Amino acid sequence: MLNLTFIFRVRPLNPRETKISDGSAIEFPGNGQILLTGLNEVPGSKGIKTKLFSYNVVFEPGATQEDVMEYSGIKRLIEMAVEGFSTTAFCYGQTGSGKTHTLTGPPGLFQGRVDPLSENHGLVFRSFMHLFRSLQERSETHFILKASFLEIYNEKVIDLLNPGSARKPLAVRWSKKSGRFFVENLFTVDCEELDDLLAVLEEGMRNRVMGSHSMNEHSSRSHTILTVHITSEQQMENGVFITKQGKINFVDLAGSEMTKKTHSEGKTLEEANNINKSLMVLGYCIASLSDSRKKNGHIPYRDSKLTKLLADSLAGSGVTLMIACISPAKSNLTESLNTLRYASRAKRIRNKPIIVMDPREALIMSLKREVKALHNENEHLRTALRLGVDTLISDPNLSGSRQHLKTPTQVNLEHVADMEGSELAELVKHYAQENEALRRENSELFSIRDLLVRDQEVVCRENERLLKKLEDVNSVCCRSPIIPVRPTYSSELLNSSVGDLEGSNIWTNPLNSSSGSLQSLKEMRNKVVKNCHDMNFDAII
Ligand SMILES: Nc1ncnc2c1ncn2[C@@H]1O[C@H](COP(=O)(O)OP(=O)(O)OP(=O)(O)O)[C@@H](O)[C@H]1O
Asked: For binding ATP, which residues are annotated in this chain's numbering (predicted)?
């Protein structure tokens, strides 16, 4: 199952590019195709002028923020997070290609009073609105939302919701329990209302490190990860509560940059080196994951903070939407080519996403599913065999499996999360026992069915033999001059009553004293009719 989807957004030429007549090097032939032109001017192009890339979703420069929300697949990602999956949307691309614009909007949107109706809002703001609408539609489920927002600046993790005046970095540690990396002491905010989530976004955006270089006046100098944890509690038919823990990460990667082109030096150069290094590690991880020979080997997640924190999304149980942002300008052709190639490599990662659940609850769920399937199968078998539940229970041939089901273990089906270990163990035991009893009953029903099928075959053969005998007698009768000729009577025989036949002279044959034959014919016929009646042919599947 594919868990990494790539989509593309090509931004319009910016005023600077238009001013210096830096034309577009990208054409859109349609059907999700991107045609790079003028490649022969790129060093190492070996004379190739154009290259065509094909993808499922490509947003052309005219696409609006709403278009991206509607057609990028982000809505599905949110639904999956609500259903308990770990999901990630991240924006990748060279500096100034429109990553921040796509995720959160243009620069300055979060300065001063934020206009909630602005058309400039990016995917994060729109996703929060969609998330709350989606939760409201599921009134039968109780949801708890928590959000955190961090940035990785120069390989240091800073809490954007609680940066402190010194912007003290937080440690990234490995959790044995959850089997993943986590940020120690990261501020996590309870978000009961949509406004709480929006406040998290605003606060984080204000605290983010921005810089300026020749290619982007408002360049993000850090990677940011905004995470919304979604815990859902739903009551099942029998009172058991099932808890699922989904999450959605919005990752705005700092832009890859050619330091020569951005004229970086000093602090900006150090930032650029760190950005490029962590993006390179991300590239290695993606390349290793997409290479089937290396997939189960070493993946260098530990080589950067970014890959440590994204490891579960890339390789584990997550579902990822990668939005590759591209500049159309001729002057950025090499970078655009790199982004498209990077995406082509990453497209090959496939994993099986899984819902994150408490292992004990997962066991109960799987036992419940099995119990339900067995119940259904047994019910079907019972109907097919025309045996009522009571018949089965009173049938001494059946083991005590049904008796057990009539008096199930009494278990306190309270809120599972609040249950003591011993209570949970008892619940698991109960389902395991019920499961076992149903399995036994299932195999007994199957043996009964096999037995009946065998009986049916024997009776069919017996009937065929009797009908053959009737045919023989018929032919003897036909040869007698006294007996009027009837074309065939085996079917007529089966359709008429015994009384009809007795009164009829077609059976009397004084020459071969056929009263004995009549008697045996009647017996045979009765036997066939009885066999057919006894064996309900339709009932056996
Ligand atoms: N689709 C678009 N439509 C209009 N303007 C855009 C679009 N994409 C980007 N821009 C503008 O281009 C400029 C650079 O975009 P942005 O800052 O989002 O790039 P970035 O990839 O995040 O860069 P960096 O990696 O340096 O942070 C911004 O002024 C932004 O508003």
From this structure: 93-100
93 CB within 6 A, ligand 1 = yes
Annotated binding site for ATP: 93-100
| Residue 107 Ramachandran class (φ > 0 left, ψ -120 to 50 alpha, else beta) | beta
Amino acid sitting at position 499: G
The rounded Cα 460 to chain-centroid distance in angstroms is: 49
Contact assessment for residue 430 and residue 409, using Cβ atoms and an 8 Å cutoff: yes
Task: Tell me the residue ranges of DSSP E strands in 48-179.
Answer: 51-54, 57-59, 86-92, 141-153, 156-159, 172-175
Write the residue with the smallest CA distance to atom 2 of ligand 1: 11
Separation of 98 CA from ligand 1 center, angstroms?
A: 3
- Inter-residue contact 39 to 49 (CB < 8 Å): yes
Residue 398's CB is within 10 A of a number of other CB atoms, namely 19
Tell me the C-alpha distance between 24 and 42, whole Å: 15
Any bridge partners for residue 468, and if so which?
A: none
Which residues make up the CATH 3.40.850.10 domain(s) of the chain? 4-357
pTM above 0.95, yes or no: no
* Ligand 1 probe mutation, 216, 222, 224, 338, most atoms within 8 A of CB: 216
Consecutive sets of 10 residues in the chain, 541 residues long: mean pLDDT of each? 76 86 85 86 75 87 94 94 90 90 90 85 96 92 95 90 83 88 94 93 84 58 92 81 90 72 61 76 78 71 90 76 92 87 67 57 67 75 60 49 45 56 74 81 79 78 80 74 44 42 38 49 66 49 36
**CA 311 / ligand 1 centre spacing (Å):** 27
Q: 4-357: which CATH topology?
A: Kinesin (3.40.850)
Vertex 301: Cα angle to 295 and 304 (nearest 5): 150
Q: Phi then psi for 187, rounded to 5 degrees?
A: -70, 125
Annotated binding site: which residue ranges?
Answer: 93-100
